[in-house]
Each structure stands twice: as C-alpha cells, then as structure tokens.
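Risk register update: the risk of archive-format incompatibility is retired. Evidence:
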Amino acid sequence: MSAPLLATASPLAVNVLDAQSLLGAFGVLGVGVVLFAETGLLVGFFLPGDSLLFTAGLLCTSSSATGVHLSLAPLLIMAVAGTLTGSQCGYLIGRKAGGTLLARSRSARLHEGAQRAEELLGRYGFAKAIVLARFVPVVRTVLNPMAGALGVPARSFTLWQVAGGVLWTVGLTLGGYALGSSIPNVDHYLLPVVALIVALSLLPLLTEVLRSRRAAAGRRSGAGE
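Archived output:
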C-alpha cells in the first residue's frame, strides 16, 4: 500500500496509542498535533510522545518497508513547533487556572505525575527540572501547567522549555533516523524497538520514585531514633 493511501486513511481506524497508526494516517501533521496535546493539555498525558518521535525518525529512512515514508526536515519542524507551542500553552493555562484543572481530574497517574513535577522543581530548580521533565512521560505533560501555577518566571520557563524541547524532539527523531539508516529493514522489528524506547523513557521516573522512597524511609528512620 502506498504512502499517500495510508496518509488519507480514515481517522476512525486510527489507534491513538500506536505511533505507527498515527503516522500512517496523519503523517508529520499528526506528530505536531500529538506533541502539542501531550505537552500542552492535561488530557494528552497518555499519548505516545517518545515512541512517536523515534518511529517517525525511523520512517524517514529509505530502508523502511512499512509503506509510510516521511521527510526529515518537515518532521523536525513540525515536531519542534508542536512541542514548544504546546508547552507554552500549558504554562499559560497553569498561570491562569492554577491547580483547578488538575484538581478536577480523577486520574491517579496524572496526580502522581504532578507530584513528581513539583518535586523536580523543588529539588533541581527551574532550569534543570524543566529540561529533565521532557524525558519523563506524564511529568512532561503536567510540569508545564505546574510551572505556571507555581509562579515560575515566564522568561525562565520559556528559555528552558525551548532548550529541553529541542533536545528531546530532535534527539529522539534523529535517533530513530540513525537507526533506520544503519540497519536494513529495522522496521520489521519496530514493536520491540519501540518497547525498548518506552522502557528507557520510564527510567528517569523509576529513578525518582526509588529516590523518593529511600528519602522517605530515611526520614522515618531518623524520626524513630
């Protein structure tokens, strides 16, 4: 099946949790929309940002046999634009609405992400926290409105979200592109490759959870002495 046919597939048949399905239906435009939603709107916390970028980069290579071929330059432009505008939108929502939107959500995963985001801001400061959050699923969604609600200066937020956003989007996209260019027919193993990327993206979150638990255990131990 040709790429144009895939690009015009019915949106009703699209699995929004599957990177290849999204790319086949919407191409680079879908990348920008998904990244905007994931980084700017709390409802987008479940979207596959890491795997989407990596898969999109892989599908820019001529070795891909999936029937979907993307152009690298438009992909990078759309990915960066979606990420940066989404993050800025999330920050502005946080400044205006405070924690109201988050308080209304019943998602335990979303609230856990908000807690991690607040801990990152407190532990590492604005610059490092905003850049690190890009690489942690869910946290990158909630940190932007949290930064706005907590009064992070707009100039500092904008500077570091741009730095982190470009590093995240370009890094993962070029990583997929490099892998697809160096290994023939790597897309035949796309599922395990994407699973590995998702697992690696969760490592920072796991590290933070373990560190928080050790710190809490240390405080309890100190209080019991």
